[in-house]
Protein 1
Amino acid sequence: MESIQLNAMAKINLGLDVLRKREDGYHEVRMIMQTVHIYDKIQLTRKKEPGIFLTSSLRFLPVNEGNLAYRAAQLLMEEFQIKEGLDINLQKNIPVAAGMAGGSTDAAAVLIGVNKLFALGLSDSELMTRGVKLGADVPYCVMGGTALAEGIGEQLTRLPDMPDCYILVVKPAINVSTKFVYENLGVNDLPSEAHADIDGQLQALEQGNLSALCDAMENILQTVTEPAHPIIGELKTAMKKNGACNAMMSGSGPTVFGLFDREEIAKAAYWEMRKDHPEAQIHLTRPCAGTEWIEQEA
Ligand code: ATP
């Protein structure tokens, strides 16, 4: 095989709780992760000339070790002493620095692709063990679908598929630093009612109950981002006004998503949001039951 094309899917958090800040500075989280059908296209091609050569559709992204896709390839190619070279082409579609794990899912796709292209024979769980060295969300991105993530995000439990629905994703044109959000969370001082109802969401998923799942949607990081960036609260209100069952920020933001049970209402909301927020990146999408990585082999 000379080349492989993969679709690297984005995620949203249906619920996000931070339990405490550990002594080593890491935060212990409890999150419900969900893959959605928004994806970057990644083409991997073997070449004779040694080295990793990355190109991307977004000029401002790093094309060296600063890019998680590059680091993922480097990690496996060094471990398995691959002497050949690799071209990586990234067609970015997932909003960048959005709370949708764009970089992590690219890294996961490259781990999957390099494993296949060079016939390394690693299992998914072996790829996940390596992936955590690149980022806490990478193992989840290898796994995909609906999952509970605990620890720093790397302890994963597969959950029943999310009930089918329509997901309206809006990434406003602001930047939110993940570091700023966690530094200002003060989780050890937050009252218990500020915490997200992750158990409620687990129960709703067991029952396949979309309305109960929506009722339990909460992201503790909003306690920091909403006061700092009022647009996040405004987008949530607009989504609900346009018929969303509920709306919430994903990850550390600033992306806001709304869940809809009816297609025509979701489509109407999509056009309303596009009209009112022309500067935002907006996608109407659906949940994905798992990863559908490989699009084409050649
Ligand atoms: P998370 O949800 O895991 O916090 P995110 O959606 O907030 O992720 P990313 O899109 O992964 O954030 O990007 C964060 C930063 O990582 C960007 O500013 C970018 O410079 C860098 N980066 C490195 N590799 C990539 C990549 N392949 N795609 C996007 N950003 C990347």
Note: The mean pLDDT is 95.
Protein 2
Amino acid sequence: MGDGVLITIEGIDGCGKSTQAALLCEALVARGLPVGPAGAPGTVLREPGGTPAGEAVRDILLHGPDSLAPWTETMLYAAARAELVARVLRPGLAAGRVLVLDRYIDSSLAYQGYARGLGIDAVLAVNAPAVGDAMPALTVVLAVAPATGLGRATGVRDRIEREGIALQRRVADGFAELARRFPQRIRLVDGERPVAAVAADVTALVAPLVEGRGV
Ligand code: TMP
């Protein structure tokens, strides 16, 4: 799988990950690293989405029918992921790019596996054929209180945000469980602090790893 590196930013809704993923990309570009897909340098990839089919699936998931059975939801997220891995992540990694992702497999493990109660291992098993060895070298989970996250969510709430704070509490517990389970890969960063302080911590975690791999 080339010399590329996959970095993922995760957390509950409204934890600040989109802002932090963009700032991380900027910081890595400023260090002269080949960030983002070759066709869209310097950009963050988002899940679900990042490909035409993936964006269409995102629409069903976030703005489609109000109720989806948990396994339907899980497999739609996995389908969007399979497309992203095949079309964007594998080629990018093979080309030695540093790919920053706003959500990836750990969102499925936390939301569907833990919070929806399907089981982390069962959801991992569904995703394994799509993801294969395209696993993140490092995953940063931005930890914020569920009330903080929902308070930050502005504009029209999507299908998952509309479920409210009880779901977000379970998702937060899910990410904490994942951090315990995969301590080498997953790092928790306190996301309740000012944006610049969080960004400094995220860059400090990621930069040495990326530079150290000689990308
Ligand atoms: P966001 O990217 O704007 O945060 O919206 C994505 C929503 O989808 C968010 O509520 C988290 C949820 N989600 C899952 O439930 N499982 C997944 O695998 C992914 C990628 C996202």
Note: The longest strand covers residues 5-10.
